[in-house]
TrEMBL record, chain A:
UniProt name for this protein: Carbon-monoxide dehydrogenase small subunit
2Fe-2S ferredoxin-type domain boundaries: 2-78
InterPro entries hit by this protein: 2Fe-2S-bd (IPR002888), 2Fe-2S-bd_dom_sf (IPR036884), 2Fe-2S_ferredoxin-like_sf (IPR036010), 2Fe-2S_ferredoxin-type (IPR001041), Beta-grasp_dom_sf (IPR012675), Diverse_Oxidoreductases (IPR051452)
Swiss-Prot/TrEMBL keywords: 2Fe-2S, Iron, Iron-sulfur, Metal-binding, Oxidoreductase, Plasmid
GO MF terms held by the record: 2 iron, 2 sulfur cluster binding; anaerobic carbon-monoxide dehydrogenase activity; metal ion binding
Keyword Manganese appears in the UniProt entry: no
Coiled coil regions, renumbered to chain: none
Amino acid sequence: MTEVTITVNGAPQTHDVEDRTLLVHFLRDHAGLTGTHVGCDTTQCGACTVHLDGRAVKSCTVLAVAADGGAVTTIEGLAEGDTLSDLQQAFKDNHGLQCGFCTPGMVMAGTDLIRRYGGALDEETVREQLEGNICRCTGYTNIVKAVLDAAGKYRAKQQA
Amino acid sequence: MYMYDFTYRRPKTLDEAAALWGEFDSPSFVSGGHTLIPTMKNRLAAPDVLIDLRAIPELKGIRREGDRLLIGAATTHYETSTSDLVKDAIPALAALAGSIADPQVRYVGTMGGSVANNDPSADYPAAVLSLGADVVTSQRTIPAEQFFDGLFGTVLEEGEIILHFSFPIPDSAGYAKLCSQASRYPVAGSFVSRTGDTVRVAVTGAGNDGVFRWSAAEDALAREFAASALDGLLPEADDMIADLNGSGAYRAHLVGVVTRYAVENPGTAIVR
Ligand code: FES
Ligand code: FES
């Protein structure tokens, strides 16, 4: 067992974990944050995407011990109180989810994507850049719309 | 799927890493772990210790030294794909890095990890071999020509650590690949580089024995550097991988196609 401290959504979380514990299990089982999902467990579906030190990673393929001392943001950390983040709101407005299983990963990957491109995104780029996230329900159309919607808001805020 | 139990260590120096290697029975080095961790989940690997190399300074950073580009082994695909130094010196290498897997994987996976693993479908081995990079390790300098040794094989000795890659800067280079729709690994990928009169073509994803140089194409392109120079040329179908993605003959045909794309599109990576 190793004592691991990770700042999760702004608050330090310290837990004794086995070295083989995956970051996603640290978040779900030890920190009790079950918004982050495990879809494939094989680094393909992206349902487990969280931000580690500001970058979207697949938490099913990162060891908790390797993230010791780092900072993680999960889907639970995006809203401010009752106010959803722009991308969360855009998923709602554009009907970007059906069963919702892929959604936490889509939102975390999409948030990183919008930031990485400074909001300057077109449909083709969004589709290409969401390659690491799989959705079995929506056919992606409304997910892409949601990301473009939030990217527009991001640009507007940058200019303001 | 739970991996077998193991111990994790993150040494800060090469000496510490070497000492750890000696302390355990079946140690493994790891950097991004985006191949190793899935392999361990499938229980196809069961090291008793993972020695994480990412905190060792010798493995970090990208720099230009005269006519060579040096890339630390722990450099992520994201860093390589966005580095101005790489984009300026070998744009096709930056583009290749930006074409691996997906953005989340590119933030974590590293060049050293990919090359040390020598997966027959990995992208980097084609670039390292085509560009004729030197693989600089904790013990020696290994020319790319001698580094790869069959499927998942390299000449790295027990406990030997890749520190960085030293790439000569070509006059031009291009990469093209066709990916499996399911895995997004290349079914055939070709990296073509040209320096003076020398052309080197390295093919990944297709060869039975892993990455290989297609010398017939090199000779033809050295005579005339144009896609049409490859007309009528294909590698031996018997030397190609035959699997559910396609037969050896299909793969051989694809090698011709992606090599043509790579010749026609220098400075970039074409992904289909
Ligand atoms: S659960 Fe991590 S990528 Fe699918
Ligand atoms: S909404 Fe069901 S998997 Fe995406």
